[in-house]
Q: What sequence folds into this?
């Protein structure tokens, strides 16, 4: 009896191994999706139960009320303007911090003195609470500029520090080669530094993109420009429309998720283009290889 | 060209102390010395990549005025660019088409025309060094500095690369300064061979290669005699230190 059981189990294992090769990849993915969907479901159920216990939509709206509000939000007056305004602020803040962060990062990476000069500033900014920056910006700038300034100030150190680290990681042998052949600055930057920095740039930009939306919306809540997701959030809160607060939050989450996805696709495109050009090269491998 | 009074220390370690030598124009000078004797430092000082602590300014200035190309111990190619792009990288011409044609021509000379679209990772070690040779010759110069360029390759590859090197070098016979600790590289490449002592490096001997470039080979008796002589010099220079 025992012998029979082991034998059948062994044959089961063999059979599994055979099918595993084909199915493993697919089933691994499927399992991942199922766990993901299950996790979302648990979240919604817990939310529903909590909302039922609280019993007041003003304090914790039920998922259904939020969904209803989310469907209504796009048809509300000022929806598009708010979305556009926030996106425009986010993009300006991001581009500004990317440009300044890249320049400062390059400088600090190349020169130890510049590194010492900028370190206190960068450390100071990084350890300043976002709210302090927002409040000071409110004193200094007009309402629309506040979110842009805050987004810039919060994310440019991230970019500068990453770029600086990346510059110090550039292969010194290649740097010496560039120096030996007296390559022009633009060529060294474009063909040695930037390609070599690209993983650091991607990392810095993806952190900075996520940070930018959160900071821009927080600044909008306090600075109250005419249009903006933050303005809408604050208005909904004042009117005790908690379901609308949730709905606008969902809009912000979708915006962040969407830009993350765009960014991911973009960086994958760059990587794939590089890989595919390498792949086509090896496909056309000439016959009769060269000796050395 | 004369070099004299070159002095260089790194911290407390004196690497070069009052070193002087003569480098003939249009020939290949091989500087042979034990590992860590300061050969590479000397080469980098000559090329202007680092500064000596002191030197006879006039002599060094004359050398540094010359346009210089490089062949390093490692291929030092941009990993994200193709062979063609790597050679084209160092060319000065304004027109991209001209740069491309010039680079292709030199890739052809080192036998890598069919590999012009390959990236370094897709090439063998010997092929990468060929791309590097193509780059150093495609770059127009009066001087060529070589730092143990065939180090770490097996004998067959090394001989093949040396042959390629000569076929390119003959086209314009630029002045070559080569540093190496490999006696084989020195006897096959050097018209003049300068043997250095252990650190702090001093000139131990200067020899002229009695064998013609085209006849140098591991089966030529005079090459073998020279090789033996160089081994003796290297070993005895190590002994004097002990």
A:
């Amino acid at each position: 009896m025992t012998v029979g059981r082991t034998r059948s189990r062994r044959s089961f294992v063999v059979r599994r191994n055979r099918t595993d090769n084909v199915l493993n990849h697919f089933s691994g993915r499927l399992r991942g999706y199922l766990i993901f969907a299950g996790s979302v479901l648990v979240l919604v159920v817990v939310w529903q139960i909590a909302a039922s216990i609280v019993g007041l939509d003003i304090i914790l709206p039920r998922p259904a009320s939020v969904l209803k509000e989310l469907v209504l939000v796009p048809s509300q007056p000022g929806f598009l303007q708010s979305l556009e305004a926030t996106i425009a602020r986010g993009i300006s803040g991001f581009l500004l911090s990317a440009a300044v962060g890249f320049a400062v990062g390059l400088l600090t990476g190349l020169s130890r003195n510049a590194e010492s000069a900028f370190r206190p500033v960068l450390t100071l900014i990084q350890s300043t609470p976002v709210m302090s920056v927002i409040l000071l910006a409110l004193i200094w700038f007009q309402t629309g500029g506040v979110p842009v300034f805050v987004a810039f100030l919060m994310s440019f150190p991230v970019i500068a520090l990453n770029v600086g680290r990346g510059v110090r990681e550039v292969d010194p042998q290649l740097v010496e080669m560039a120096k030996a052949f007296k390559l022009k600055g633009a060529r060294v930057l474009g063909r040695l530094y930037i390609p070599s920095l690209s993983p650091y740039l991607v990392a810095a930009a993806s952190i900075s993109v996520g940070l930018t939306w959160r900071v821009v919306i927080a600044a909008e809540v306090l600075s109250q420009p005419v249009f903006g997701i933050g303005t809408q959030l604050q208005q909904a809160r004042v009117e005790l429309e908690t379901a609308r607060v949730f709905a606008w939050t969902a809009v912000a989450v979708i915006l962040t998720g969407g830009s993350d996805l765009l960014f991911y696709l973009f960086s994958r495109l760059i990587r794939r283009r590089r890989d595919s050009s390498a792949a086509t090269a090896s496909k056309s491998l000439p016959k009769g290889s060269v000796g050395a | 060209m004369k070099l004299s009074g070159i002095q260089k220390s790194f911290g407390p370690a004196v690497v070069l102390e009052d070193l002087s030598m003569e480098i003939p124009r249009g020939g290949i000078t091989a500087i042979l010395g034990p590992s860590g004797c300061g050969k590479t430092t000397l080469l980098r000082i000559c090329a202007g990549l680092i500064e000596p602590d002191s030197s006879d300014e006039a002599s060094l200035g004359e050398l540094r005025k010359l346009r210089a190309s490089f062949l390093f111990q490692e291929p030092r190619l941009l990993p994200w660019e193709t062979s063609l792009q790597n050679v084209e990288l160092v060319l000065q011409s304004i027109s991209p088409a001209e740069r491309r044609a010039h680079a292709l021509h030199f890739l052809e000379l080192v036998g890598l025309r069919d590999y012009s679209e390959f990236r370094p990772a897709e090439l063998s070690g010997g092929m990468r060094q060929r791309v590097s040779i193509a780059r150093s010759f495609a770059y127009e110069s009066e001087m060529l500095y070589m730092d143990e360029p065939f180090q770490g390759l097996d004998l067959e590859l090394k001989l093949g690369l040396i042959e390629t090197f000569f076929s390119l070098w003959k086209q314009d016979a630029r002045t070559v300064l080569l540093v190496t600790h490999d006696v084989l590289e020195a006897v096959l490449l050097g018209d003049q061979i300068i043997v250095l002592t252990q650190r702090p490096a001093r000139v131990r001997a200067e020899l002229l290669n009695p064998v013609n470039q085209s006849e140098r080979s591991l089966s030529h008796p005079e090459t073998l005699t020279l090789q033996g002589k160089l081994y003796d010099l290297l070993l005895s220079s190590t002994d004097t230190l002990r």
